[in-house]
Amino acid sequence: MKYFLMHLGCQMNQSDAERIRTVLEGMGIERTEAEEEADILGMVSCSVRQKAIDRVYSRIHKWNKWKQERPLLTFVSGCVLPADREKFLDRFDLLFSITELPELPEMIRGHGVVTPASARGVVPPASLEDPRRGYWEVEPTYSTGVEAFIPIQNGCDKFCTFCAVPYARGREVSRPAADILAEFDRIAERGYRAITLLGQNVNSYGLDALGDGVDFPELLRRIGERAAASGRDFWVYFTSPHPRDMTREVIEVIAEYPHLAKQIHLPLQSGDDTVLRNMNRKHGLADYRRIVSDIRELLPQATLFTDIIVGFPGETEAQFENTRAAMEEFQYDMAYVAMYSPRPGAASSRREDDVAHEEKRRRLHVLSEQLQRSASARNEALLGRRLPVLVTGHDRKEGYLTGMTEGRIVTRFPSENTELIGEIVELEITGHASLSLSGELAGRTKADAGRGSGTPIDTAGFRR
Question: What is the dihedral of CA 349, 354, 356, 357, to 10 degrees?
């Protein structure tokens, strides 16, 4: 028996998919990348963007056609809005939230599917103080041997008017710090080079009723100390924070510990205070500017990423210009710009979507050009520098490998040595594009740096 599983959307959905894999494979079901071979077809959905939901409907339409030819079981999980949930119930055999993951084997057996083995390593929710934490005790089956994700929190209490997360994933729930640290220790011991802490709002970690007294700065501090004691080379990231909860203390902790990556993803969404109020962001541009000022002061080498929405209901040309000016001011290394689309149930869906699609596309294009100017200038400043780069795989260009700097800037270099994949190597930067770098191998891997003579790799950062 085989299963096929695809995930859409954010890294949290990818992390959820890795835990779903563990449950299915613990039942003796074999994974396949060819969906036409599978007996069980699963989807980790994303309700944040209409395009993602459209892909779900397209896939299940195809799968249900296949059911006319052979027996199949279909399921969906992930971020599912109530309006989508009602429609999915008629299309999928199983629909479950990720917090119900430990119950999946019983759901599958309830549909008459005879599997090769009973589920192994799955902790039933009843064994925990709060069942919403049960799925975290399912150890993930990681997608790669290079980067691993650790969920630290689920849900969101911010209720931004454009966002579906509180309705799809529920209110904020923090994972016990001891469990997070135990999973971190396992991952570090296995030699992963990039570890990302995940949550819909990571910097509100520990503030909910289920928190165990450890807040986000303290969690980062404990991870930084463990990373230093491990004697291993890797970078620790987190995503995504909310500006409302982003404190100077978080930035100070990142500056203190070398393993905490000097890369910050700080969603802007809009550079206009009126639009931010309409989005219910609960902070203004001045608050955001203060955070960026702290980052530039304490982490001068850090890269800065962001998210922006164009065409939010009522956004005027002048308000959009404030966003463009903010992008120019903050000099982002990467920005994920999206055209606004109403999500059923989110508060903004009750407002008229009054910015024309063509105008949204124009505004997106303007911001894309602004990003390319700022990112290109920052990348150009790296020419001639020697940087540590984590090699992640083959580049699209034949004869090249690709990777990322500590600041998550995509970097490629000529090499066919596949043994370098998963290693941190030293590159001399020889070229740049607006959103990427290119270089030449300039030294040994960091793993070798302490085992002989030669100049060690600069591990303290790369923007000086």
Answer: 0
Which SS3 state, helix, strand or coil, does residue 101 take? helix
**Two structure tokens written together for 329:** 């001011």
Distance of CA 424 to the CA centre of its chain: 21
Question: How would residue 115 be classed by pLDDT, with cut points 50, 70 and 90?
Answer: confident
Question: Mean pLDDT across the chain, nearest whole number?
Answer: 89
Amino acid making up residue 92? F
CA distance 242 to 258: 23
Residue-by-residue DSSP string for 266-304: ---B-S-HHHHHHTT----HHHHHHHHHHHHHH-TT-EE
Using DSSP, how many helices (H) and how many strands (E) does the chain show?
Answer: 12, 18
Do 2 and 31 meet the contact criterion of CB atoms below 8 Å apart?
yes
Q: What is the pLDDT of residues 196-235, one digit of tens each?
A: 999 989 999 998 866 678 999 999 999 999 999 999 999 9
CA distances 198 to 3, 305, 353, 415, Å, are: 26, 16, 31, 32
Distance CA(286)–CA(245), nearest Å, equals 14
Which domains can be identified in the chain, with CATH numbers? 2-127 (3.40.50.12160), 142-380 (3.80.30.20), 386-448 (2.40.50.140)
Which of 217, 266, 264, 276 shows the shortest CA–CA distance to 242? 266
Angle between helices 285-298 and 248-256 (to 10 degrees): 20
Q: Judge contact between 270 and 231, C-beta under 8 A.
A: no
Query: Beta strands of 68-129 (E only): which ranges?
Result: 73-78, 94-95
Nearest Cα to Cα of residue 235 among 146, 334, 144: 146
Q: How far apart are CA 62 and CA 64, in angstroms?
A: 6
Run of H or E residues at 327 = helix 317-330
The confidence band for 390, taking pLDDT boundaries of 50, 70 and 90, is very high
- Distance between CA atoms of residues 139 and 150, nearest Å: 10
* Nearest 10 degrees: Cα torsion 182, 158, 132, 97: -110
pTM attached to this predicted model:
0.88
Residue 342 tokens read as 């109403």
Radius of gyration of the chain measured on its C-alpha atoms: 23
Which of 42, 43, 46, 16 shows the shortest CA–CA distance to 29?
42
Instruction: For 163-192, write each residue's pLDDT tens digit.
Output: 888 888 888 999 999 999 999 999 999 999
Amino acid sitting at position 310: V
Query: Are the beta carbons of 48 and 9 closer than 8 angstroms?
Result: yes
